[in-house]
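pinging the channel bc i need a second pair of eyes. not urgent but kinda urgent?? the chain im working w is below, pasted from the shared doc
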Amino acid sequence: MQALRFQEILRKEFEERRKKNSRYSLRAFAAALETDHSTLSQVMRGSRRPPATKIRSWARKLGMTPEEATLYIAAQHLPDANTTARQEQLRHWTAEAVGVVMEPAHWQILRLSRTPEFKPDCRWIAHQTGSSVDAVNVALSRLLRLRLIRINRSGEWTDLTGLERLTERAFRKLALVCVREEAAKANIKLNGPREARKST
């Protein structure tokens, strides 16, 4: 969508005019568009967004239709690639936090892993917790991502929470801290209490 940015159109038009006349200046271009050259320069550099009125006026002078002008006005409100990536990261980590809080399978997996009869089998865990196998698999993947559990090569599961008493409330509190820490590595800030994770 970056190609729809109006400043790109202005830059291309300016370069086309300079190809025809190497002495063609930015001031001459601004005069043709009946605008201030410093404003035009800022828009073309991308340091300033052109207001809708300017886009309509400049588009008309460049021979564009009102429909094209409307398209470029709408495009000015589209997020750039960096903003889009940050929004995706924010959605991802928010979903991680919501999953930890809303899906009890996370805590139940860890609770069961501490029992003598524990079987490291997702079907067995699903049967014990009343969850679906899919829900257990998703929860287990999240626990592994957050480094709250470890599975070694021999298939042994280890609780890495460091919690002496594994209550649901204590687990959620710790898990949300872990989500915020992982999000922070991607420069995503999630609101919540700033608590240090216990060393394991």
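so Confidence is low (pLDDT under 50) at residues 193-200. and DSSP finds ten helices and two strands in the chain. — does that match what u expected or am i reading it wrong
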